[in-house]
Specification:
Layout: H1 2-21, E1 26-32, H2 40-50, E2 52-58, H3 62-71, E3 80-85, H4 89-94, E4 98-99, E5 122-134, H5 135-141, E6 161-164, H6 170-183, H7 191-200, E7 204-206, H8 209-216, E8 227-231, H9 234-240, E9 252-255, E10 262-271, H10 277-287, H11 290-293, H12 296-300, E11 303-304, H13 313-318, H14 330-348
Parallel strand pairs: 1-2, 1-3, 6-7, 6-8
Antiparallel strand pairs: 3-10, 4-10, 5-8, 5-9, 5-10, 5-11
Helix pairs in contact: 7-14
């Protein structure tokens, strides 16, 4: 009889173990902005190691993604939110939609990138919002490439610039913030004066970066605007993805006036009410690890925040870091953002 019970218990334990081993993977929901990218094998390695399937969803541009997360407060659309940047971080934190998580991986992230002391938003990447120009267009026209923001208001550059709407686009908001840092809010000539001059010079406004870069920027062959608000890494991207035979230089270049390129930091956070909080923490750790971070540059064309991650040579050669980027702390951006956007809309769109 004892032998029978021992055999029965052993059989039950074996079946339970087998069932656990064959258990269906859990699902981790990750909401990102539309520019998120990662090598499939890198994501698959995390899924295999954690017996999870990651279900990605796209919320649009950075601002749109955050708005969707805020509207779903209390019933989150995902477990993890990626893509809030330092222009929108104040809104995200004030919305109280994120759980604090002091990831052990933060030890490898420089303190100056850890902008949220509550650890609800953890830095994944950073880049520089800058003006890109179409080299061939300027060469064909025999027109000098502008070197300052002020020059963009000159008659020679009328109708040449496309920018993104700061109400719907994080690069657009970052560029607006850069102009506020550069021209200030008081005095005879302010950022408002500057934008009124840009409007008078026929600057085109579109809702998001993808529209601006792929539809209206002349280098892509579709648009007729040879200057676009994009990233300082965009020329390196163009060279890397150029068809064979690869040119020696990128087809685009950067315009990097001192104090006029905004340093954008993008974050990841765990949404309150996450269905899989343990897996969400594991995924945040993974996004900050050298494995994921070394994948960031050639996937999203921004810099990794992990100091131990590798950065490709093409960044060093063709993605120059601005000598002195625009500087406004997140608290100042948070305090002024809504009023700035309202004033900008009145000046530029109405």
């Amino acid at each position: 009889m004892k032998l029978f019970f021992r055999s029965a218990i052993a059989a039950v334990l074996f079946l339970a173990a087998a069932g656990a081993a064959d258990a269906a993977p859990k699902v981790l929901r990750v909401m990102t902005h539309s520019s998120f990218a990662a090598t499939p094998a890198v994501i698959a390695a995390f899924e295999k190691a954690n017996n999870v399937t990651i279900q990605f969803s796209t919320g649009g541009d950075g601002g749109e993604t955050l708005n969707k997360a805020l509207l779903a407060k209390g019933n989150p659309l995902a477990d993890v939110l990626y893509g809030v940047d330092n222009t929108f971080m104040g809104r995200a934190l004030a919305g109280d939609i994120l759980e604090p998580y002091n990831s052990p991986a933060l030890k490898d992230i420089p303190p100056e990138l850890q902008l949220d002391p509550s650890h609800r938003l953890l830095p994944v990447d950073y880049g520089y919002i800058a003006l890109n120009y179409d080299k061939a267009w300027f060469a064909a026209k025999g027109l000098k490439v502008p070197t300052t923001l002020e020059e963009l208001t000159a008659p020679a550059y009328k109708g040449l610039l496309v920018v993104e709407n700061p109400a719907t686009s994080s690069p657009g908001l970052a560029f607006l913030v850069a102009t506020i840092a550069r021209f200030g809010e008081s005095g005879a000539s302010t950022w408002k004066t500057y934008w009124a001059a840009l409007r008078a010079n026929d600057a085109l406004v579109v809702n998001g970066w993808e529209d601006a870069y792929y539809n209206d920027f002349s280098e892509q062959g579709k648009g007729n605007r040879p200057i676009v608000v994009s990233y300082a890494t965009s020329p390196a991207y163009e060279l890397y993805n150029a068809p064979a035979p690869a040119p020696a230089e990128p087809p685009t270049g950067n315009i990097l006036p001192e104090g006029s390129s905004f340093k954008q930091v993008e974050f990841v956070g765990i949404l309150k009410g996450a269905k899989e909080p343990a897996l969400a923490r594991a995924f945040v750790d993974f996004m900050l690890s050298t494995t994921f971070q070394s994948d960031v540059p050639l996937q999203m064309w921004v810099y990794p925040t992990n100091a131990k991650a590798s950065v490709p040579d093409i960044f060093t050669k063709f993605a120059p870091v601005p000598a002195r980027p625009a500087n406004l702390p997140p608290a100042a951006i948070d305090a002024g953002r809504d009023a700035w956007i309202k004033a900008w809309t009145s000046i530029v769109l109405q």
